[in-house]
UniProtKB/TrEMBL annotation:
Protein name stated in the entry: Octaprenyl diphosphate synthase
Cofactor(s) in the UniProt record: Mg(2+)
Reactions mediated catalytically: 5 isopentenyl diphosphate + (2E,6E)-farnesyl diphosphate = all-trans-octaprenyl diphosphate + 5 diphosphate
Lineage: Bacteria, Pseudomonadati, Pseudomonadota, Betaproteobacteria, Nitrosomonadales
GO molecular function terms listed in the Swiss-Prot or TrEMBL record: all-trans-octaprenyl-diphosphate synthase activity; metal ion binding
UniProt-listed Enzyme Commission number(s): 2.5.1.90
Function: Supplies octaprenyl diphosphate, the precursor for the side chain of the isoprenoid quinones ubiquinone and menaquinone.
Length: 309
């Protein structure tokens, strides 16, 4: 991962000072580096000994960072990882354009690998992520979004990059088709579990640990799983509270919504769903040969659902 960070710093170079400034700000502002770690670990699980996994891990992080820059503009977010978002600090225009720079730099780097399969996986992933962003936008302020539609957004917007990261390592390691598919399944379900916990923490996390304000999703009118389940399990009065909160956005109803979530055990349900996703991820790679890399991949599935940040 230290090598990956070195590649990231090297590839962030631009003769345009503002691009360097914004890129370095967002890249260096924290983050778990889970997605690039997946590339390294999955490549190691198949005995890869080259150096392209470092570049592809950086590519994955650049794509992820570009989505964050664009996300925060769309969501009008002002806080991420306990720091001001890039758009709050540098403005929306700079955030969008630097996000574009990171996308294009990522594609320059993936071309260097000279592997059409790698290109296909990353091109498909970035396209799917963009579709997920639009689907999420369409779901905002809509209290009638069902669980299947909500999960579809997660699979597209978040889990697809986890899937791509896991698959890339398998491709570099010349894994068999069935093994590559197993890593893709692992990544997809790991990413889904990760996002389910993220959505839970929006109603239960601590600001100092999550780096986000409680109720940010509610302020944007996002119908996430805790709200969807609470409306399914709640009384007519409770359903009315949540519908109103989603339709109007903002945080005026936050305390009332938190009470309904607690009364309907919505967070317990969301955690059970996240656990099921993590279990599916772990089962997908159970047949891989034992190694420190496999052990770490399994530990990531546990971390995804036990974390508080």
């Amino acid at each position: 991962m230290n090598v990956v960070d070195s590649v990231i710093r090297e590839k962030l170079h631009s003769h345009v000072a503002l691009i360097r400034q914004v890129s370095e700000y967002i890249i260096n502002s924290g983050g778990k580096r889970l997605r690039p770690a997946l590339v390294i670990l999955s490549a190691g699980a198949f005995g890869y000994t080259g150096k392209y996994h470092y570049n592809l891990a950086a590519v994955i992080e650049f794509i992820h960072t570009a989505t964050l820059l664009h996300d925060d503009v769309v969501d009008e977010s002002e806080l991420r990882r306990n720091k001001e978002t890039a758009n709050a600090l540098f403005g929306n225009a700079a955030s969008v354009l630097v996000g574009d720079f990171l996308y294009s730099r990522a594609f320059q780097m993936m071309v260097e690998v000279d592997n059409m399969r790698v290109m296909q996986v990353l091109a498909d992933a970035t396209n799917t992520i963009a579709e997920g962003e639009v689907l999420q936008m369409l779901n905002c302020r809509d209290p009638d979004v069902e669980e299947d539609n909500y999960l579809r957004v997660i699979r597209f917007k978040t889990a697809k990059l986890f899937e791509a990261a896991s698959r890339l390592g398998a491709i570099l390691g010349n894994a068999a088709e069935e093994e590559e598919r197993a890593l893709a399944i692992y990544g997809m379900h790991l990413g889904t579990a990760f996002q389910l916990i993220d959505d839970m923490l929006d109603y239960s996390g601590d600001y100092q640990e999550t780096g986000k304000n409680l109720g940010d999703d509610l302020a944007e009118g996002k119908p996430t799983l805790p709200l969807i389940y609470a409306m399914r399990a709640g009384t007519p009065a409770q359903i009315s509270i949540i519908r109103k909160a989603i339709e109007e956005g903002g945080q005026d109803e936050l305390q009332s919504v938190l009470q309904v979530i607690q009364q309907t055990n919505a967070l317990d349900y969301a955690r059970q769903c996240a656990q099921a996703e993590a279990d599916t991820a772990s089962a997908a790679i159970a047949s891989l040969p034992d190694s420190d890399y496999k052990t770490s991949l399994l530990q990531l599935a546990t971390f995804a659902i036990t974390r508080n940040h």
